[in-house]
Amino acid sequence: MNEYFVITTPGIEEVTKQELAALGINATTEYGGLTFKGDASDMYKANYFLRTANRVLSRIGQPFYARSFQELTERIYNLPWEKHFDLRFDFEFQVSCSHSKLMHTGVITKFAAQALDQKLNAKCKPTKLEKSIKQLINLRIDHDKLTASIDSSGQILYKRGYRQEVTRSPIRETLAAALVMVSGWDQASPLIDPFCGSGTIPLEGSQMAFNIPAGYHRGFAFTDWLDFDYKTWKSIKDGVKIDFEKKIEVFGYDRDAGAIEIAQSNAQRAGVADRVTFECQALSYLTNKNRHGWIVTNPPYGHRLQEGNDLRNLYAQLGKVLKAETPGWTLALVTNDIKLSGHSGLKFEQLNQVSNGGIKTVFEKCVIPKS
Ligand SMILES: C[S@@+](CC[C@H](N)C(=O)[O-])C[C@H]1O[C@@H](n2cnc3c(N)ncnc32)[C@H](O)[C@@H]1O
């Protein structure tokens, strides 16, 4: 058993917790993340399946006190680095300190890197191969206690591999997935995003419905580790049952033809191009030919003051169109300004408060009344 820490976006910890529970992993929530005890296969699954996590860190050794650089060097040296790494690994350190004697992250990195280097030189066979495998090490010192972790994810997990082109103000894939999850979409009724931009919300929703793992189109740092268990990893991947028989009705609209082209290219890479409909259409043309469903969306944010008026009108139009066309449907949206969404005339319940690329946002939800 090892301890793992799943880094998530502050505000959606409980959504990530539910995702972990669905994988059979019982986790404890902390601010911005969750801790769980498990084996390597749990860590592989967390990386591969979690749609709302940013990274999975694997603790190395037990936390220890480091009140001087000598203590830090000795203790870092004693950690079992050689279990995972050899001389081909090229380390990058991410260090954070609070309420501690050692507070200078640059000097801590220098001493820790030297100790790790010495340990691997002492324990590993020399090699002529270059240091070519990037590996992130996370050190957190709090009240002089140091917790060392190795990053098992590699590239941050919201980089799924399918979204290689974006429009202005894209939503993070992790937040798009969290919004679809908290909307309660039943994966059978229609899902519409009338402001789809590069298509993130429809693409996350359709991958969820077809059971395509979040990490299906990307790699992970742990597959380079010396103790990587290929058999376990293969059995996890082989166990995935992508269900393209499932009939889903997922639509993304945007008034910008360029955005729709980008969404279609992203859909191609996400493996759902012929199963999600992206069309160039302004909000005012939204019509409902369907029974009952969900609107899940990320309307334009106001970045500049002079945009305020236009956006107020856009939200008023959103309320009007949805009341006329989709009464009884569920609406879930993410906004950076609840006063703006109030201009829709819809009565929202406020759910998670999250940061989307540094912008404070809120998830809001309501059942759309009749006009
Ligand atoms: C915040 S962006 C959506 C970003 C998207 N979630 C993504 O991940 O790329 C808002 C989108 O609304 C579109 N938009 C603005 N006004 C619109 C309107 N009246 N009808 C349809 N789309 C509109 C913009 O072109 C823009 O792509």
Tag the structure with descriptive keywords.
32% helix, Rossmann fold, 371 residues, single chain, alpha/beta, binds S-adenosylmethionine, VC0802-like
Structural write-up:
Helix content is 32%, strand content 25%. By secondary structure, it is an alpha/beta fold. It folds into 2 domains: 2-151, VC0802-like (2-Layer Sandwich); 173-211 and 241-367, 3-Layer(aba) Sandwich (Rossmann fold). The strands form 2 sheets. Strands 1, 2, 3, 4, 5, 6, 7 and 8 form an 8-stranded mixed sheet that branches. Strands 11-10-9-12-13-15-14 form a 7-stranded mixed sheet. Strand 7 (133-142) and strand 8 (145-151) form a beta hairpin. The protein is elongated, with a radius of gyration of 23 Å. The termini are far apart. The chain binds S-adenosylmethionine (SAM). S-adenosylmethionine (SAM) is lined by residues 166-167, 169-171, 194-198, 200-201, 254-256, 259, 282-283, 298, 300-301, 314.
Report the order of strands and helices: EHEEHEEHEHEEHEHHEHEEHEHEE
What separation lies between the terminal Cα atoms? Answer: 57 Å
User: Which fold name corresponds to the CATH topology of the largest domain?
Assistant: Rossmann fold
Radius of gyration: 23 Å
**How does the helix and strand content classify structurally?**
alpha/beta
Q: Helical residue percent?
A: 25-40%
How is the biggest beta sheet arranged?
8 strands, mixed
